[in-house]
């Protein structure tokens, strides 16, 4: 792996662009949680694929898929960020989270499971908590069965953050938004019920909400029990793909009032609802979900609402 450039701001987020050879590129992110003292929580985002075959309508990382990242490819991203800050591999943060969410659908790459299984033996990180977000592709049952075993063996007691990315309860729009075969809500709920144990964090159902994408509380209640599932509502981040498809965010990242109609309806249905809005600066850096710095560098017409930081070339 050769890191060829970075963009961002220390204390907010830095995106690294890396060349893995043979036309394979990946990005990874060093970030901090807004509102939390910088030394107490550290968040890294790593890529599990070189590009992504899914092609979600709001994600710039889709297309130009060059295969899965191997175990050492994923660890190389982590090592670059960890060793740059802690050369001995000892990570002191009380909360140290790695999100397998920069590029790629993790459930399509078995190497992610090998990383999860061996990570606690590779680093001294007592605060480590993996975070895995998935659209639950059809045919990935073996991945999720093994994930369940690893979680029960190595990450019990609230030390694993698991999320299904759903985005809407309308099945037709959901298939258009994420255009590959996926588990239905019944199968997601059954897996979540098996995954969740007393003392665990609730499983998140994520909605990057665009205008016109309904979220029906009755549909959710028919499958997902509020005791085991929470709802995470996020803005639709500014991406070239979102602009191309005419998608506008339902959540305004600059609005302080969280009393949105959909949010209030979901709370009234008994769900814990998190309206998760990051630093607006992250959109300008290009570090938020769905953003892909390399897409921006290759674009002829630049996006006005994001990616405004210049790439800093890293000398050989």
Commentary on this structure:
- With 316 residues, the chain is α/β, with parallel strands linked by helices.
- The protein has a single domain (2-304), classed as Aldolase class I (TIM Barrel, Alpha-Beta Barrel).
- 28% of the residues lie in helices and 19% in strands.
- The chain has helices at residues 71-85, 111-122, 141-154, 171-177, 185-195, 217-221, 240-244, 261-268, 280-285, 293-298, and strands at residues 2-9, 13-19, 25-31, 41-45, 95-99, 128-134, 161-165, 203-208, 229-234, 273-275, 312-313.
- Strands 10-9-8-7-6-5-4-3-2-1-11 form an eleven-stranded mixed β-sheet.
- β8, α6 (217-221) and β9 form a beta-alpha-beta unit.
- It is globular, with a radius of gyration of 19 Å.
- The relative contact order is 0.15.
Describe the secondary-structure layout.
Layout: E1 2-9, E2 13-19, E3 25-31, E4 41-45, H1 71-85, E5 95-99, H2 111-122, E6 128-134, H3 141-154, E7 161-165, H4 171-177, H5 185-195, E8 203-208, H6 217-221, E9 229-234, H7 240-244, H8 261-268, E10 273-275, H9 280-285, H10 293-298, E11 312-313
Parallel strand pairs: 4-5, 5-6, 6-7, 7-8, 8-9, 9-10
Antiparallel strand pairs: 1-2, 1-11, 2-3, 3-4
State the gist of this model.
By secondary structure, the protein is an alpha/beta fold. Helices cover 28% and strands 19% of the residues.
CATH topology: TIM Barrel
Order of helices and strands: EEEEHEHEHEHHEHEHHEHHE
Percent in helix: 25-40%
Name of the CATH superfamily: Aldolase class I
Shape: globular
| Count of all domains | 1
The biggest beta sheet is recorded as: 11 strands, mixed
């Amino acid at each position: 792996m050769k890191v060829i450039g970075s963009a961002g701001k220390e204390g907010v987020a830095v995106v690294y662009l890396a060349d893995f050879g043979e036309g394979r590129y990946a990005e990874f992110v060093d970030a901090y949680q807004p509102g939390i003292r910088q030394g107490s929580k550290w968040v890294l985002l790593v890529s599990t694929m070189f590009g992504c075959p899914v092609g979600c309508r709001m994600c710039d990382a889709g297309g130009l898929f060059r295969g899965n990242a191997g175990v050492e490819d994923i660890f190389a991203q982590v090592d670059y960020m960890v060793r740059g800050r802690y050369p001995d591999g000892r990570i002191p943060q009380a909360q140290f989270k790695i999100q397998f969410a920069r590029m790629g659908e993790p459930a399509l790459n078995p190497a992610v499971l090998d990383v999860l299984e061996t990570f606690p033996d590779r680093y001294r990180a007592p605060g480590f908590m993996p975070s895995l977000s998935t659209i639950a592709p059809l045919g990935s049952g073996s991945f999720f069965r093994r994930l369940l075993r690893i979680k029960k063996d190595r990450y019990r007691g609230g030390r694993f953050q698991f999320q299904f990315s759903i985005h809407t309860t309308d099945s037709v729009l959901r298939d258009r938004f994420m255009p590959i075969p996926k588990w239905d809500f019944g199968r997601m709920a059954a897996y979540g019920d098996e995954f969740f144990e007393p003392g665990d964090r609730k499983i998140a159902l994520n909605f990057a909400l665009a205008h016109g994408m309904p979220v029906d509380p009755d549909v959710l209640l028919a499958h997902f029990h509020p005791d085991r599932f929470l709802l995470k509502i996020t803005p639709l981040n500014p991406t070239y793909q979102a602009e191309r498809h005419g998608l506008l965010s339902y959540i305004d990242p600059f609005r302080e009032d969280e009393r949105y109609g959909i949010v209030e309806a979901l709370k009234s249905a008994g769900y814990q609802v998190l309206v998760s809005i990051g630093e607006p600066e992250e959109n300008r850096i290009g570090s938020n979900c769905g953003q892909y710095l390399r897409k921006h560098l290759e674009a002829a017409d630049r996006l006005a609402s994001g990616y405004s930081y210049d790439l800093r070339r890293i000398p050989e």
